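Can't attach files on this board, so I'm pasting raw text. These are the components:
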Amino acid sequence: MQQTPAMLIAGDPALDFLNTVATPIDVPVEWLDDGEGLLTWLGQAELVPAALLKRMRSQWSAGELDKVAEQARSLREWFRAFVEKHRGRPLARDDLKKLERLNRLLERDDSFSQVATATSSGSGAFELRVIRQWRSPEALLFPVAEALARFVCSEDFSYVKACEGLRCTLFFMDKTRSRARRWCSMAMCGNRAKQTAHRRRLRADR
Ligand SMILES: [Zn+2]
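---
Top answer:
Structure tokens for the assembled complex are below.
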């Protein structure tokens, strides 16, 4: 079972998903190592409501959930290759054929919309709510697929960055005004780089 809390530093759930394998402090961590790891991460990333995760846990066997975690890892590594190849410039229409795997997965989603009582007061009586059926353990992949799809449709790949930290593999969206973000976080890689530079300066001074 996974103890390390999910790292949600990327500024977008699709990149947070890529960051589910990382080396936060020296030792590599795999958040999606099994079904339980996947369920925990989906809950922490708020991609699946807690009540549903509970239901999925009791409805499906550990083996079945482990299998979905394996599919999630495979999806993640496929998407990582796509992001690595395309980051740094806007996506082009021609890139669509490379996203076929994602569209095939989205095709299997059995969500539908319903008119429902509005949850927030102040607006009208109703809201349009998307209902997912959760008919198979594979359904756990659909909110992830949706996040990846939203990401390629709405984010500018020019600002997808990889942390400059030595051995760091984390991706993030640079949403700073100056587009000068270099680190996954100051607490992790930023400070480490500062310390290294400081030590180097001290040595040079001597
Ligand atoms: Zn980093």
